[in-house]
């Protein structure tokens, strides 16, 4: 009997299992799916119990306290006859510092999820929450990364390396089980009032260290658009890999000035340690592996997102930044008028020197 293409084989989801239910993206995605009457059953899986307010938002969804690194995940898929798996446990990257334990969770967890899907005949769809970090960042990068563009300098550590490996396992599953529809989502750096990410923590500092001599171009993805994209992908028959980002770009200096904070240029090797001095202890920490991103930037081509996936974010990069400033409670050190006055004085001084 000939294989049926996965895009045709994947029916509308009836029983959906979402990993990473205690994270912002995983938990709120569960809440959205549970509110959809067309989905018969929603299972929320995590080794940690979500906050009480998040559990309430999940409504009729069933929370199962499971460690995805254990064989119990396979029994769950089979026992509940799950047809759609959304692997959002990788959302832990938004706040947790990368470590050997996190690497094991990401890599071994993904291997177990893929193995469980392979052994479960009812599974017909797998959605992976990956990251734009898989493209790395270097001085030789293209102006825009398309989904088929390989990283000029592959990440050798951190979450970027983890997710490159995880994507490989997911694609391997697609080759072994061609009847399973595979969709990989690569969100750009997320900002929002409700989500704590390294970028939001970084821009919230009154004094923001930057790499001297570089002006990286940045894209942002609003937290609501990130959730909407994951929901859209879960319900859509589209398969493949998709970049997800808001339209437009801003430079890092523009972003810092719009927040009303002060830029502090430092040597690249000192960016992470100096940033750590200024950051709140409760904030998501900037790591050395992200220095390249804040040196060279990264911009994604979102043509496939709009044309093939049929998803268009509500917020542009600029809108996302403005909404973050308005709703996150960041306090400007210098207002827009102060910056304009400062720039005028710089221009006047430059003319005097000529």
Description:
The protein is of the alpha/beta class and about 350 residues long. Helix content is about 40%, strand content about 15%. The protein has helices at about 5-10, 25-35, 50-55, 70-80, 100-120, 160-175, 200-205, 225-235, 250-260, 270-280, 290-295, 305, 315-325, 335-354; strands spanning about 15-20, 40-45, 60-65, 85, 125-130, 180-185, 190, 205-210, 215-220, 220, 240-245, 250, 260-265. It has a seven-stranded parallel sheet with strand order 3-2-1-4-5-6-11, with helices on both faces. The chain is globular. It starts with 5 loop residues before the first helix and ends with a helix. Mean pLDDT is about 90; it is low at about 1-10.
- Class computed from helices, strands and strand pairing: alpha/beta
Termini separation (Å)?
79 Å
Radius of gyration: 21 Å
What assembly state would you assign to the polypeptide chains in this entry? Answer: single chain
Q: How would you write the strand order of the largest sheet?
A: 3-2-1-4-5-6-11
| Helix content class | 40-55%
What global shape is seen? globular
What string, H for helix and E for strand, traces the elements in order?
A: HEHEHEHEHEHEEHEEEHEEHEHHHHH
Instruction: State the major sheet.
Output: 7 strands, parallel
The overall strand count is 13
Low-confidence stretches: 1-9
Number of helices: 14
Average residue pLDDT: 88
Strand content: 15-25%
């Amino acid at each position: 009997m000939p294989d049926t293409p996965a895009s045709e084989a994947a029916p509308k989801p009836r029983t959906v299992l979402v990993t990473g239910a205690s994270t912002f993206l995983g938990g709120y995605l569960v809440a959205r799916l549970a509110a959809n009457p067309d989905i018969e059953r929603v299972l929320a899986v995590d080794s940690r119990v979500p906050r009480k307010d998040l559990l309430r938002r999940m409504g009729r969804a069933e929370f199962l306290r499971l460690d995805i690194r254990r064989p119990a995940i396979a029994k769950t898929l089979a026992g509940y006859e799950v047809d759609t798996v959304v692997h959002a446990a990788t959302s832990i990257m938004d706040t947790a510092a990368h470590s050997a334990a996190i690497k094991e969770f990401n890599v071994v967890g993904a291997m177990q999820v893929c193995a469980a899907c392979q052994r479960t005949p009812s599974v017909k769809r797998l959605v992976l929450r990956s990251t734009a970090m898989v493209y790395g960042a270097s001085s030789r990068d293209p102006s825009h990364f398309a989904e088929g563009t390989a990283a000029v300098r592959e990440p050798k550590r951190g979450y970027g390396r983890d997710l490159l490996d995880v994507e490989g396992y997911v694609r391997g599953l697609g080759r072994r089980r061609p009847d399973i529809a595979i969709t990989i989502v690569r969100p750009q750096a997320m900002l929002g009032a409700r989500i704590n990410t390294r970028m939001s923590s970084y821009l919230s500092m009154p004094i923001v260290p930057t790499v001297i001599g570089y002006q990286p171009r940045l894209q942002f993805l609003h937290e609501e658009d990130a959730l909407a994209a994951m929901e859209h992908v879960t319900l859509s028959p589209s398969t493949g890999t998709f970049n997800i980002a808001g339209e437009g770009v801003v430079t890092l200096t523009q972003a810092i000035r719009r927040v009303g904070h002060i830029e502090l240029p430092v040597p690249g090797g000192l960016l992470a340690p100096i940033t750590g001095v200024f950051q709140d202890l409760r904030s998501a920490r900037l790591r050395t592996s992200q220095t390249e991103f804040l040196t060279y930037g990264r911009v994604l081509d979102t043509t496939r997102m709009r044309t093939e996936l049929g998803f268009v974010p509500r917020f542009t990069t600029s809108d996302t930044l403005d909404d973050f400033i308005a709703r996150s409670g960041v306090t400007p050190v210098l207002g827009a008028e102060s910056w304009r006055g400062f720039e005028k004085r710089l221009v006047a001084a430059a003319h005097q020197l000529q």
